[in-house]
Write a structure and sequence with these properties.
about 260 residues, alpha+beta, 4-stranded antiparallel sheet, 8 helices, 10 strands
Length: about 260
Amino acid sequence: MSDNFSILSDISPVFRPYIQSIYQDLKLGLCKTKIDLERISGGTDSVETQLRLVLPYCSKKLKWEVIFDSSTPWFAPDFRFDDDNFLSNADEEFLNKEVPSLCQWNSSDPKALCGVISELINLYKIYQVRKLNEDDSSRAAFEYSALLGNALTTEEDVEVWVGAHIVEFLIKLKINTTKLPELFNESLDINPGIDTALLLVRYPNSTNAELILSPFLSKVLGNITLPLMHQSGVLMDYVPMVTNLLNNKMQIFQKSLQF
């Protein structure tokens, strides 16, 4: 964290509010994780200010570079993505429609960059789903389509990442936390994390599913052993199974609070 504050202090004051807002206020992805700052070139006196944002997506860390020009501080920044194919064919009409925060850049708004990053992440998710559907005969493409046919899961509940030989799904599980106390932690004065349960599944080896719990839910639910996902099993059945398991554990915990 100290490294991030050091990076912030090195940024030209005219651009510092954008980056400070990104670091302090913006949380992305199903994990709702804060953005990290990895490196910077160009100090407070440099014409060009360049830094790398580390963005949570699926189980990955996207590394996007943001480049400001001090000679035209009212201009929107340029971007360099770690995937050369992402937005490689985007024209002005497309960007005006899909990334309005960039095309209508408001240099007086400290949250201007937050808006741009949020819109770009949404486009990146669409881009990954499009890559998945390019091979509509694949097991992963079938699983994704079938999963969204289940009323329990929507497009907003799934992050997709497609690699050369692997596909990842990060899935938000619908856990009922409404009856939990706002605070269940003896050592902290604040709720330690968002009440989020996520399931990470990789294809072709889908049997190694991973459960990712927020610190709060991890404390409430304790150790969870996932049911075995057989090679012939399907996500549209497995996701409700895991969801029911967690909700049952939640009910047991809630009942224990009554005694």
